[in-house]
Design a protein that fits this description.
By secondary structure, the protein is of the alpha/beta class. The chain folds into four domains: 99 residues, no CATH class; 42 residues, no CATH class; 138 residues, no CATH class; 113 residues, Rossmann fold (3-Layer(aba) Sandwich), CATH 3.40.50. Helices cover 49% and strands 6% of the residues. Helix 15 packs antiparallel against helix 16. It is globular.
Length: 444
């Protein structure tokens, strides 16, 4: 007699995403799998507090005639899909039925398949195509005169009301600023720089910075802070000759062809650097995760993708590798007091541990309180008219913890999450990226 194990005692594993198989886009088989997985989730309900997808699903079930998934109109499945922003927390922190469990439940990648089917059908808003075209929007909004206009309009109520009416971008959502003097402009002298590094552990001691579209055009100071901290620790920094968005926004939209196009630009450039002995770091967790996990699963037979994925690090992960071998300077000049540190979802699911907290905890007279809960921002979810209220609800427990700590500083590995927390606090305080805090502590 066969038995089914309750729960999974083994580490979750991920299957490659067979997105080039025509069956991947078969809507009938997709809905069969959605029903199977939704039924398992309904019977478990451990993930109810993570995001809006699960409360939406459970409300649909509880309000149906049968009180089971079979009573839910399948067209309403899309409500669940639309609330998922692929943070991966359900898979990595909650779900007891992930592979190798026989029920083989991978909720985020099922949502990705549904988004890809939806995109293939053309069922996607112009707004969402624009919001995820970060390179195009950034280049346009980064033109000196235009950037000033865009930044001004984004801060005034009449302009935001027009934006909400035309593009359905919520009038109260915090939007990023655009800089005409990009990070890549500021670090132009470092492109294709040559140098030698001091290897330590799994690090080669010299890094190529993947600037990221957000770090390049929206918050270049973070990249400058990273360079300052790394070079203070005798780690040379270079930049690739060119780069595009990592592809994460298009992945979340289900536009997998666009993800491949970005991969075809970025991977060859990064591979050149890896072959020359450079490690790769990315200051935005989503971008590091894209290269570490998503691209290898989307392109499992691409050896170049695999090689780059093995060479990319979260910045604080990199610094802790160096510290364990005695190569991190501890000559801190300024204590930080109480720090409320929000651990970003896409940093947590990299499975490297709480490296940011570990590094910041080395600073004397500094108390770090880690907040391991999703902020609900996702890059685009929190700015959309129909989801902004849900995003503000999701961030509320994070905000409450920041208040309880009475923090002198607060911030997140994800700068967009940090600004979302700042927006929800609405007390005149400002988020600070952990790398910026580290630079402050060093006094450089």
């Amino acid at each position: 007699m066969s038995t089914t194990r309750e729960g999974n005692l083994q580490a979750p594993t991920r299957h490659p995403i067979n997105w080039k198989n025509i069956e991947y886009y078969n809507e009938n088989s997709l809905f069969d799998e959605l029903e199977r997985v939704f039924d398992l989730c309904h019977g478990c309900r451990r993930c109810v507090s993570l995001c809006q997808s699960f409360p939406t699903l459970f409300d649909l079930v509880d309000e149906s005639e049968t009180f089971e998934v079979d009573g839910v109109d399948k067209k309403n499945y899309w409500q669940v899909v639309n609330h998922c922003y692929l943070c991966d927390l359900c898979y990595m922190t909650k779900c007891p039925y992930t592979p190798p469990h026989e029920w083989n439940l991978d909720f985020p990648h099922l949502m990705l398949r549904a988004k890809a089917v939806k995109y293939k059908k053309g069922d996607v808003k112009i707004r969402d195509k624009i919001l995820t075209s970060t390179d195009t929007v950034g280049k346009l909004a980064g033109i000196p005169v235009i950037s000033a206009i865009v930044n001004t309009v984004n801060k005034i109520k009449p302009g935001r009301k027009i934006l909400e009416a035309v593009l359905e971008v919520h009038a109260d959502a915090k939007l990023p600023e655009f800089h005409s003097n990009t990070l890549r402009n500021r670090l132009a002298s470092r492109i294709n720089k040559t140098s030698t590094g001091l290897p330590a552990g799994s690090t080669k001691g010299k890094v190529a910075l993947f600037a990221t579209c957000y770090g390049n055009r929206n918050e270049p100071a973070i990249g400058e802070d990273l360079v300052a901290v790394f070079e203070h620790n005798n780690i040379p920094v270079t930049l690739a000759a060119k780069e595009q968005c990592c592809g994460m926004p298009k992945l979340e939209l289900g536009d997998l062809e666009a993800v491949e196009q970005a991969k075809n630009v970025n991977i060859p450039e990064l591979l050149k650097l890896v072959d020359k002995g450079w490690d790769i770091v990315a200051p935005v967790p989503s971008c590091a995760l894209m290269f570490k996990q998503e691209l290898p699963l989307l392109f499992p037979d691409d050896e170049a993708v695999k090689k780059v994925s093995e060479a990319i690090f979260d910045p604080f992960e990199y610094l802790m590798h160096r510290h364990k071998k005695g190569h991190l300077k501890l000559d801190f000049k300024k204590p930080l007091g109480k720090v409320a540190y929000h651990a970003a979802c896409h940093q947590r699911v990299q499975n490297v541990g709480s490296k940011t907290k570990e590094v910041l905890s080395l600073i004397p007279e500094t108390e770090i309180t880690a907040i391991e809960r999703c902020s609900g921002h996702d890059g685009t979810y929190a700015v959309k008219k129909e989801y902004h209220d849900a995003a503000m609800k999701i961030v509320k427990p994070v905000v409450n913890q920041v208040k309880r700590v009475a923090a002198d500083h607060y911030g997140s590995d994800c700068p967009m999450a940090g600004h979302h927390i700042e927006h929800a606090l609405d007390d005149g305080s400002h988020t600070q990226h952990p790398m910026s805090l580290l630079r402050t502590a060093y006094g450089i």
